[in-house]
Design brief:
This protein has about 450 residues and is of the alpha/beta class. The protein is built from 17 helices and 12 strands. The chain has a 7-stranded mixed β-sheet, sandwiched between helices. It has a 3-stranded mixed β-sheet with strand order 2-4-5. Strands 1-3 form a two-stranded antiparallel sheet.
Length: about 450
């Protein structure tokens, strides 16, 4: 150990055990805590981290500018991580056991090749602390509404604090220069970004969200008279944008708060005769449509129900129709490795879901439907910037979040969620795709 100037202490948040039972509880697992301490030293060494301890000590010397993990309660941190791995790591942050002056930089360092943090000879120990997702969170028709309620029905006012005025809770597409290039012709494969900085600003976020929506609607060829089904309404911006093109829109949601606000926004825009919002599970979708769009909804479906999801798309799509999806994705091997793992994100943020791979989407559609993946464009860096803007605004408006009744444990949970997601896109652990699916018999 070496010493350094003691950082300013961060007050430990009050943890209500009734609201946050697993955050309030500190386990006592000395052998596992010792193993966690060894892994912490390994991570600090391999990732060049500066681990700061109480009293001005540091775990080991680190280069200038190294990402910082500041431990306020090392014993609690190690026992939590020792008992439940990354779930314990997240709960430890909620409890105030650790902090970082640059949370994204720290999480980006840890998310880079995460499989190398644990020695290969010790990976068999994973089965002792990795949990399986609970059956009650599986996204069945009976459970899906409850899963949605836990996130999207938190408060429309909460989301309005950090989203832009379009109320779009999905990745924007930012300009990369004076003007966007026209959409290239149909193809299957990656679309590399130009080697220029994304022009991502808070003021430019509404236009960037409209750019995302317009590209998806263009992909689905939505125009005057198009019968459009949207699966996953959000707060109605895509439906509004499609209705303004002259389309007739039916949009489905399971969130009662989103339903109410989307209907209100559609009526205020004078588009109620063109856009109908229904409280409806995707499996119960009715009608025939020229186009189907869905923005970052497949992540909530869950792997067991991917066949049902794509079968629904195929069932409601009229001859000659097109399906355009925007999806968060991950590499196929990582998806397989995590598909039966209960993570901190699943426990606290998005119960019942799984981020798919492009390969899984392509194979599931081909195996269970007449739909074929014909185009896949990637925009991962755009999501990192979108999340940065959301995180900055959420942090700046922390007093307003508190005024809505959300305690500090919740606020720290959301700060970690937004930073964790941003780090995932910055490292390539996560990606973003706009995908086009069509039927073989519908192609010229």
């Amino acid at each position: 150990m070496t010493t350094t100037a003691s950082p300013t202490a961060t007050p430990t948040p009050f943890v209500d055990p009734a609201r946050w039972p697993d955050v309030a509880r500190v386990p006592d697992v000395p052998l596992r805590a010792a193993a966690a301490a060894r892994l912490l030293r390994r991570a600090a060494s391999r990732r060049g981290l500066r681990v700061e301890l109480p009293g001005g000590r540091v775990l080991r010397p680190a280069p200038p500018g190294a990402p910082v993990l500041r431990l306020h309660h090392p014993r609690d941190f190690l026992h939590r991580v020792g008992e439940s791995g990354l779930i314990g790591f997240g709960e430890s942050y909620q409890a105030g056991d650790w902090d970082s002056p640059d949370l994204v930089a720290l999480l980006t360092a840890l998310a880079t090749a995460p499989e190398t943090l644990v020695p290969s000879g010790a990976r068999w120990l994973r089965r002792f602390y990795v949990q399986r997702p609970p059956d009650e969170e599986l996204s069945t028709a009976a459970n899906a509404r409850r899963n949605v309620r836990r996130h999207y029905d938190l408060s429309n006012e909460l989301f309005a604090l950090f989203l832009d005025p379009t109320m779009s809770y999905s990745s924007a597409l930012f300009p990369t220069g004076p003007a966007d290039a026209p959409l290239p012709g149909p193809r299957l494969g990656r679309a590399p970004l130009p080697g220029r900085t994304l022009l991502a600003t808070h003021d430019g976020l509404p236009a960037a969200q409209h750019r995302k929506i317009d590209r998806l609607l263009d992909l689905a060829r939505v125009g005057p008279g198009t019968r459009l089904l949207e699966i996953g309404t959000g707060w109605g911006e895509l439906a509004l944008r499609a209705a303004a093109r002259g389309a007739h829109v039916v949009t489905l949601t399971l969130s009662e708060q989103q339903l109410a606000l989307a209907r209100q926004r559609i009526a205020a825009a004078g588009q109620a005769d063109r856009a109908e919002v229904r409280l409806c599970d995707y499996r119960a979708a009715e009608g025939r449509y020229d186009a189907v769009v869905s923005v970052e909804m497949i992540e909530a479906v869950g792997r067991p129900f991917w066949p049902d999801y794509f079968a629904t798309l195929d069932r409601v799509l009229a001859p000659g129709g097109r399906v355009a999806l925007q999806a968060i994705t991950m590499p196929h091997d990582r998806m397989l490795a995590s598909s039966r793992t209960y993570t901190w994100i699943l426990k606290y943020i998005f119960p019942g879901g799984l981020v798919p791979s492009v390969r899984a989407i392509e194979e599931t559609a081909a195996r269970h439907t007449r739909l074929r993946l014909t185009r896949a464009d990637t925009y991962g860096p755009h999501y990192a910037e979108t999340l940065r803007l959301w995180r900055e605004r959420f942090t700046e408006r922390s007093p307003q979040v508190a005024a809505l009744g959300f305690d500090e444990v919740f606020r720290r949970m959301w700060e970690l969620y937004l930073a964790h997601s941003e780090a995932g896109f910055r490292t390539g652990y996560l990606d973003l795709h706009q995908l086009l699916l069509t039927r073989d018999e519908d192609r010229p």
